Each structure stands twice: as structure tokens, then as C-alpha cells.
């Protein structure tokens, strides 16, 4: 049975972040993910998790200045120290909150820098980070993002991501499979997920092509969740979408996958 995690950066946005944990637990979620938890002290997040009985399934490394267009540093030559500092902060939050998956954002391309140089930087940074993450019991993830929503992003396809992962060749470095981004860039999401079975350690889900609830549109949530289940995927599936109205009103489709509230 699919295990759904509420992405608290997208869902329950009408509430302060620390209040979203209890709201998710009350609806039957048993795990959450947060894009960037760094606005709140790690100790406060750990306390909210404990009070709600939730697992923190995933966080991203700090991305830099989002308003200025930054989307991480892992693949940017010259930003190696910024990547190391971001990893330091993320590992500290992971340790405090019991999180075992970190997403290292590749970042946007630098004008005049060849794609091969970006990928070489990404491979080198991941190799170094993988050792530190392994010592902490953490899986390090990379995620392709579609260029419609993220123009200039370095990592854009699952094929490119797998080539990087194979070059890094560390057992705790894996693919983060976002079905929305995969749909936009590659299409044929169910077939692609099946082909990638065993290569990804976290999944994210949203409706396609509008990034609302996955209960209509071109991606059938029930079918893709059944496909993942049949393929033996037992990890979390993060709900990373913008509700059409409110989070609660749009969760009818998910009720079969949620636990009975404690």
C-alpha cells in the first residue's frame, strides 16, 4: 500500500509551519517532508514531529537566495564551499529531526560554463557528500526538474540523473523521482517509473499538467500508485502540489492511503 507524506511547504499553507504537523497527523499522515525547514529551529521541528508522531521523510539542502533565482549549488563550479556549508546545515537538521533523506539541488547553469563542467562538479560534490551522509545514515538524492518551471536548471532528465548516479557509484546516492517533473519533461510516467524501479529512493506526486491534486488531468494517481506498489517500492511518496482550494477539501482522493487518525 502506498505511503503518502504531506509536503508541508505546499500543503496546509494557511497555517504557520509548526502548526502544519498536527494538521497532517490529524488527517492520517504518518510522515511529512519540507523543502526548506531552515526558517525554524531544528529543535522546534523535532518537537513538532514528536508531538504529532510523524516521521520527517525528506528535506532539501539550503538552496541559496530563491528570490534571486538560486536553486542550490551542487553542480555549480566555484560554489563548492557554498555546497559544503549547505550540506553542513542540512545534516545538522537531519540529525536533530531523524531525517534520513536529503535532496541536493543541482542549481542553475552558469553562462559560459559547459554542461560537462557542471556535471563533473556535481559528481565530485556528491562523491564527497556521500561519505559524510553515509556516516550519518543518510541517503543523498538528486532530482531532475523540468525547465518549464525551472529554466536553466542543470539536471533535467532521469537519464541524465542516472548517469551522474552511476558515475558517483556510492550506494547511498539515489534518484528522487518526481512524477510531475518527469511527466512534463519525458511523459509516459507509468512506463518510466516502471523502467526506473530500484533506482529511486523517494517519490513525489502532483497532478499533471497543473500541479494541483492528482485526482484529475493526465496522471491517474490510483494507477501510478498501484504501479509503484506492484514494482515493490516501499518508500514514501511526497504530495508536492498546490491545492485548488484548501488542503483538506482536496484530499478526498487520498483517504484510502491514509491511516486512521490516532
Description:
The chain has a single domain, classed as Divalent-metal-dependent TIM barrel enzymes (TIM Barrel), CATH 3.20.20. It contains 8 helices and 8 strands, in the order E-H-E-H-E-H-E-H-E-H-E-H-H-E-H-E. The radius of gyration is 17 Å and the shape is globular. Helices cover 37% and strands 15% of the residues. Strands 1-2-3-4-5-6-7-8 form an 8-stranded parallel beta barrel, surrounded by 5 helices. The chain has helices at residues 17-26, 42-52, 80-97, 115-135, 158-168, 179-186, 189-195, 221-230, and strands spanning 3-7, 31-34, 55-60, 101-103, 139-142, 173-178, 200-205, 236-239. Helix 3 links the parallel strand 3 (55-60) and strand 4 (101-103). It is α/β, with parallel strands linked by helices.
Terminal-residue CA separation: 19 Å
Structural class: alpha/beta
Rg value: 17 Å
The domain count comes to 1
CATH superfamily: Divalent-metal-dependent TIM barrel enzymes
How is the quaternary structure best described? single chain
- Architecture per CATH nomenclature, i.e. the level-2 architecture: Alpha-Beta Barrel
Beta-strand level of the residues, as a percent range? Answer: 5-15%
